[in-house]
Amino acid sequence: MSKQLNGIFRAWMTVKQATGTPPIVWGHCIVHLSHPQFSGNVLHTSSVLNIVEYETFKIVETRNHYYILLGPEVEMPVHSTLSPSSYLRQQQEQSPRLDAYASAAVNADRDCPKCDGSGVYRRDNHRLAICDICCKHNQSWWQLEGDYGADTGRWACGAGCGAIVDTPPPELEFLPRARG
C-alpha cells in the first residue's frame, strides 16, 4: 500500500515525545480525506517521519499517510498543564481564507509554473493569493458592480483567484441578467 494524502491542517503544532521518539503532530483538521467525519476536529497524527517545507505549506510524512500543514504552527509552552488538543482549541482562530487555500492546494496542477503545484503563491511578505492558472473557477461567480461601476457585465471568480471574464460563465446562463 502506498502512502496517500490524508488530511489538511489549518493550525498545528508538533508535540515532543520521549527522547529518541519522533514527535506527534496535533492539528485542527479542515479536510480529512479518509475519514470525513473527522473534518473540523482537533486530532493528532502518528509519529512524524519527515516534514518537507514548500513555499506556502509543509507536508508531513507519517508511517501511513501524508498531511498538509497549511496554517501557522502553534507553539505550546513547555510546562503547560493542558492537553495538546485543549491548548490547540484555545489558540485556533477560524479563517475561511485558509479553507480556500486548502482547496486550492488539493486542486492544484502539480506542474504549474506560477505556484509550483501548491495552488497558492506569495504576493508579498504578508499575503498569499490563489493561483489563477490552477483555479478550477468552480466555487462561484460574482458580477462586478458597486465600486467596479454599475453592472459592468463582467464576472469574477468567487474563489478569489482574480480571474475575470467578459461574458457570463456557462453555469450562469440561466440568470436573466446574464443574458441581457
Task: Characterise this structure.
The structure is a single chain. The chain is an alpha+beta fold and 180 residues long. 13% of the residues lie in helices and 32% in strands. The protein contains three helices and ten strands; from the N terminus they run βββββααβββββα. It has helices spanning 84-91, 96-107, 176-179, and strands at residues 4-15, 24-32, 42-53, 58-62, 65-69, 120-122, 128-130, 141-143, 155-157, 164-165. The strands form three sheets. It has a five-stranded mixed barrel with strand order 1-2-3-4-5. It is elongated. The mean pLDDT is 79.
User: Which parts are unreliable, with pLDDT below 50 for 5 consecutive residues or more?
Assistant: none
Kindly state the mean pLDDT as a whole number? 79
How many strand elements? 10
Distance between the termini: 54 Å
Largest sheet: 5 strands, mixed, barrel
Helix content: 10-25%
Shape: elongated
Rg value: 20 Å
Structural class from helices and strands? alpha+beta
Q: List SSEs in N-to-C order.
A: EEEEEHHEEEEEH
Helix run count = 3
Widest sheet, order of strands: 1-2-3-4-5
The proportion of residues in beta strands is: 25-35%
Q: How would you summarize this macromolecular structure in one to three sentences?
A:
The chain is an alpha+beta fold and 180 residues long.
